[in-house]
Amino acid sequence: MTDGARRWYPLPSPVSTARRATPTATRAAKKTSPIDPLAGPKLALAGRVVTMDDAGTVKPDAVLFLEQGTIVAVQNRRQPPPPGFDTVPVVETGGTLFPGLIELHNHLSYNALPLWSPVPKLFQHRGQWPDHPDYRKLISGPMTVVGTYRDAQGKAALLAPLVRYVECKCLLGGVTTTQGIMLSSNAGVQRYYRGIVRNVEQTDDPALSEAKARIPDVDAKSAASFLARLKKEDSCFLLHLSEGITKPEQPDSIARKHFLALEVAPNQWAINDRFAGIHAAGLLPEDLAVLAQHGGAIVWSPLSNLLLYGDTARVDVAKQAGVRISLGSDWSPSGSKNLFGELKVAWLYSQHQLNGLFSARDIVGMATREAARILKWHDALGTLEAGKRADVLVMAGQEGDPYDALIRAKETAISLVMINGVARYGLPGLMKAFGSEGETVRVGRQTRRLFLQQETGDPDVGSVSLRAARSALKKAFQDLPKLARELEKPKPKKAAPRALDAPEPVVWSLALDEIQATGVDQRPRLPFNGPRDFTGPKRASTRATAVPLSQLLQPIALDPLTVADDANFLTDIANQPNLPESIRTGLADLY
User: Does the pTM exceed 0.85?
Assistant: First the structure.
């Protein structure tokens, strides 16, 4: 896949992965053979099935039949099984089956960081909070250290643990698809980490078009070039838009200029049905009408918006205009731990600020069917129907309204998470029934299992358990000043290569768009009032960095994987000054 002049290299193929497997990983594979969905057994799981189809079909007692990572049939239990499934044992889940949760906005690399508590002031737009002293101390500084640290052998020692940890954080929240983690090398090559949770930017599946979440700087600085790029692509563009607030009496806000700069000519906008604006909090009703007219969508991140700006996107107006809406938790420094939590915030906001405008089914739809439609994945994901990919979330219990039950459920109610027909996380009994026992993890003092083996995954991450990842990150976060001092030491001169053509070893680092210039943008930085008036925030490289990180940073806590295991999260939420009362005091009731 290419993106302008920059080539995006895929991660190793299954063959190269197998060759590079460590002895530890090889022994583990012999003990518990990895399940390839194209070669694994046929499966059948029973429960109440919430299909999320167009008709809103809920089957109170049904069986999901799976083969090679695909749903073969969704049938009422009394129907005979489809051909070839006569002898396949039906696994009783005792729960309610939903499509896996699809997240369209998450800076996954930052999700080991704790919540910014409290957010120190009310900000007006995205260009302000990165200039607050806390930002470098609590967010950009720690991630710079984690993302670039090298051990004595020159290896990016914290990269694999970080990737493993944040991906497991998704799984424990029922998330089966999210935005990817981009890596950069000292050779100038960039690629996405290939892992267990689906990555919208690199799918490795011809039926799932690959979304674009970054565009070359040259296209990000010209509305006409940006429009031309939109027209050439069949996939979805997930780009930050109007991060901030706009009051009707002050329509010339910086956040809104970000949107107005998309107008190429009268009634010609750099927007089409492949454009999804992340945040879109600064759009006025007339702007949302334009977005709807040109087929654009928005990705709503209510908790992050409310924490930083005290307000969020006008989703009520967006719904009335016919704009498609999905959800994203943004990142842990100013958002929910995962999409499971963001469902709760969206529900509370709808109930109390919008007079119940969105039903529970609407909110769940934003994280399943609507997200799939925005991605142009609706023929393969987003609902539980024959022919779709087998991404499944099972919640405990079968009573009451299923949508309301999902929003009100605790994290410990997640019984099973399945991706492409492979059980990845869940109750020990269910995981054993599907041959995916894996690693033990405790959630809210309850035992769960994680199955992390993957033949096509990144081999460096594949050998890292969640326990090892957590241990490495905890130690690193406590040693931040020490690690920063090591990074600040002058680097010794490189020895001359033994041969002129001797290659330099490739070393990977996190591509931290929020901190470092990477040659691509997550948000168009378009000129509004002339070529010098760019609407995007200042580049990270232009921010003041006078104090060395070794003198600025202090030990910080690793963010727990779940709210159930975080003694501080709900208290911190209750003490956030920018949140509306309904969320500050109401969120705890949903956990």
Answer: yes
The arithmetic mean of pLDDT across residues 12-33, rounded, is 32
Strand residues in 160-205 grouped as ranges (E): 175-178, 182-185, 190-192, 198-199
| CB-based contacts of 79, cutoff 8 Å, min separation 6 | none
Say whether 83 sits in a helix, a strand or coil: coil
Distance CA 188, CA 8 (A): 10
**Residue 588 CB: number of other CB atoms within 10 A?**
13
**Rounded to a whole number, what is the distance in angstroms from the first to the last CA of the chain?**
42
* Amino acid at position 189, single letter: V
How many domains does the chain contain in total? 1
Which CATH number covers residue 372? 3.20.20.140
Q: What token pair was written down for 200?
A: 């919208």
Is 60 exceeded by the pLDDT of residue 455? yes
Task: Answer whether residue 460 is part of any domain.
Answer: yes
Omega before 118 within 30 of 0, i.e. cis: yes
Tell the burial category of 552 from Cβ atoms under 10 Å away from its Cβ (0-12, 13-18, 19+).
Answer: middle
- pLDDT reported for residue 519: 62
CA within 13 Å, CB half, 72: 16
Residue pair 405/340 in contact (Cβ under 8 Å)? The answer is: no
Rg (CA), the chain: 23
Longest CA span, the chain: 74
The boundaries of the domain holding residue 451 are: 102-477+558-590
Concatenate the DSSP letters of all residues of 524-557 into one string. Answer: ---BSSSTT-B-SPPPGGGS---S-HHHH----P
**Which regions of 55-202 does DSSP assign to beta strands (E)?**
58-67, 70-76, 90-99, 101-102, 175-178, 182-185, 190-192, 198-199
Summarised one tens digit per residue, pLDDT across range 158-212 is: 999 999 999 999 999 999 999 988 877 766 667 788 889 999 999 989 999 999 9
Cα–Cα distance measured from residue 537 to residue 255, given in angstroms and rounded to the nearest whole number: 10
Q: How long, in residues, is the chain?
A: 591
Q: Which residue from 576, 535, 507 is spatially nearest to 258, judged by alpha carbons?
A: 535
Is 527 part of any domain?
no
pLDDT at 319 over 60: yes
Whether 191 maps to a domain, the answer reads yes
Looking at the domain assignment, is residue 366 inside a domain? yes
The answer to whether the beta carbons of residues 302 and 346 sit under 8 Å apart is yes
Q: Is 384 helix (H, G, I), strand (E, B) or coil?
A: coil
Under DSSP, is residue 395 helix (H, G, I), strand (E, B) or coil?
Answer: strand
Residue 531: pLDDT over 50: no
Quote the CA–CA distance of 165 and 268 in Å, as a whole number: 44
